[in-house]
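re: ur question from earlier - yeah i can do the single chain one, its not a big deal. heres the input i used so u can compare w yours
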Amino acid sequence: MDAQDRILVCVINRLRDLKYAMNDHWYRIPINRAPRYFVVDYLAFFLSRTASQKKPSGIYYYAPMRGYELQHRRTLLPHEADHPRADDLYYRIALGDFIPKNPPIHNPHSYTISFIYTTGEAFDSAMQVRDLFIPSLDNPPTGAKIFMTNHFLTKEYSNADY
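and the output i got, formated as tokens:
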């Protein structure tokens, strides 16, 4: 990872979703909840306490982004065809191999996370979630909730990048 690489930190709340991401190399984001832009080099995964298997919540893994496509939830999760949002569109983000984050980035202040944009430099040196925030990208966190909406300038991607 380079210092200028762009990283989107995403939340995984269920062990099932972590298994899809790690084993099948994809992650889903509902189109109506997605950040406005997510042309990034890597996705990092903030694991809730449930998904982290009783370890403290934090970022334990990241993976390179390989591309994305739109799919209906019923296509992504065919065993949930009767789900109330089965017809909703989702971004299915293709991922490369998972890379352990050593040391992991912990969340000692129990911030609620939706998405965080950061850089490779901040990600590499962060020890706590609050270390990921870059003033030029967004305001630093205040209070108990963090909902990040800053955006990177998009970079040109050729078809070879996917």
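Strands lie at 6-12, 26-30, 42-47, 58-72, 89-95, 99-106, 112-113, 115-119, 145-146. not sure if urs matches, ping me
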